[in-house]
UniProtKB/TrEMBL annotation, chains B, C:
Sorted UniProt keywords: Cell cycle, Cell division, Chromosome partition, Cytoplasm
Domain of life, source organism: Bacteria
Keyword Cell division belongs to the record: yes
GO biological process, one term: chromosome separation
The name this protein goes by in its record: SMC-Scp complex subunit ScpB
Pfam families the record matches: SMC_ScpB
Amino acid sequence: MTTTAIDSASQNDKNSVLDSGRNSELGEMQQQVLPLALVHGEAMVEKPLDLFIPPDALEVILEAFEGPLDLLLYLIRKQKFDIVDLPVAEITHQYMEYVDVMKSLKLELAAEYLVMAAILAEIKSRLLLPKTTVDDEEDDPRAELIRRLQEYEIIKRAAEDIDELPRLERDVHLPNVDLPESYKPRVVEAQVDLQDLVLAMQGVLKRVEAFQHHHIQRENLSTRERMSQILAKLKPGQFVEFSDLFLLEEGRAGVVVTFLAILELIKESLVECVQSQVFGHIQVKSV
Amino acid sequence: MNHNQQLKNLIESMLFVADGPLSIKAIQTTLEDDTALTRKQLQAIISELQLDYAERGVNLIEVASGFRFQAANEHADQIALLWKEKAPRYTRAMLETLSLIAYRQPITRGEIEDIRGVSVSSYIIKTLQERNWVKVVGHKEVPGRPALLATTEEFLDYFSLKSLAELPELMPVSEINLDTEQVDEQLETAEA
Amino acid sequence: MNHNQQLKNLIESMLFVADGPLSIKAIQTTLEDDTALTRKQLQAIISELQLDYAERGVNLIEVASGFRFQAANEHADQIALLWKEKAPRYTRAMLETLSLIAYRQPITRGEIEDIRGVSVSSYIIKTLQERNWVKVVGHKEVPGRPALLATTEEFLDYFSLKSLAELPELMPVSEINLDTEQVDEQLETAEA
């Protein structure tokens, strides 16, 4: 199904096609359609015979229906039937012709169309049966179908009305006004609960305790002791070579203790380290 | 410029710059740090703005979720010229499904299928939901607990409606007449 | 409404609705089928519009590529309220730093680093200062004269405290029966 096919069957063609369809000569047409159906393209629209429906055009027409109710409404309209006094036999006949054409065109025939065919057949057969009860409206086998047709018709119109409403994009245009260049978005600050704060502090304290515990056990005492020794070595205002503070004979462990002690002293602002030039000697003095 | 004038200007700016319609409540919330504006005062300012713009190239109108400026109706065609892109068209299946949800809400997909006589594709429901026109408002207490569909404020906004009551009235059953003129028209619009 | 008024309204609509600034040329091109508007006439209409909007919430301004409406400058800040950007939640590092300043003030950044065992980024201190929760109250008389940090009145106001004495008492460490995992968890959710 291509758009070229739609284009090739002009609007007028389609209307005349429908009229011929209404003439209920579809059975005959099918016979003519069949050989032509093998040929695609221009051949089908080249010389339309009187009752000939180009298959592609018919396909378009049939696809224009939203379903069996829509098709039935179309048939009723076309024949000027009264919806409340539906001639079921006739409408069924026409409906089946369309369904047959759909089949012959190997259209993906939706199950709904066949269900409707069955409903129509059932109504028809019930109407043919001799009436056993009083003929009131409730008992009319057509009543349910008519109700459905009416309900569908109402919604079909409503959809058309909604389509007509002015709508954004198509009919309603919104202004597109920018903020000045100077605009800066205002940031909404994060929410903080007092609880978060207390929890954070508890966390810090707990970590600090664990940390201290660890150090006290391992080296804190020796470091503290070494700190005092270093301070004792330093005279106020006098620089001492950084390397002089280490006693190599103490070995690796002793060097580490001294180093930690110096760091601790610096941290507590008790001593000051000075390096006058890059890679030069580091001088230490007490504050 | 006095204080009132400034406030009016500010609200005017906000309405112009906002991404969508602004409700009285939204304006109040935005301004609450700076002004103690009552709903009534705000309403008065908006009425004034509506009057100011009544005869201009843009109008201040009310839709379901609030107030918005929009280009005056009479210029719509010419304004459309500014855009090469065509507005999206919606298929009959889509519009009929939307209509059923709008007029018969809350409604299940099965109920829509019963009335239309054909199955409703998931694509249609998905598209309507993605456009934020339709949302699930609950589930029907029947086997399978199917979703109950309803329209949203965005749906009303899109069609410039304040409420569902403003939807076009449904045709009364008695008026279903069968004039033939409509028949060919239907096919033409469906094919177009 | 006379013809001129209508034309002015149309141009006003176009300027409002356009995706970007519109040049005189662009307006002329869009309108040329309907009106034979000279450049000069168009210029006059635009000047008139600029005057109409001079004192309003939106102004018609000229930029390099043409004319466009934009929100009046003086309202930018308040309009910006409509676009509240949410700041990320505070990280654990931020909360710990703030709690140390609150409970151990006045305190230097170095001291905070010592207690926390990790360095405190300048960003954290800056953020807390920008929020007006933390301020420098002096300098410690040690080399480098590091700033002594303390909390502000705004900090107390935010947490509805009358004074620092109202800060919740900290449990002695030995009584913290939350195992560390729980604390971490809580902090992580706070950070999330």
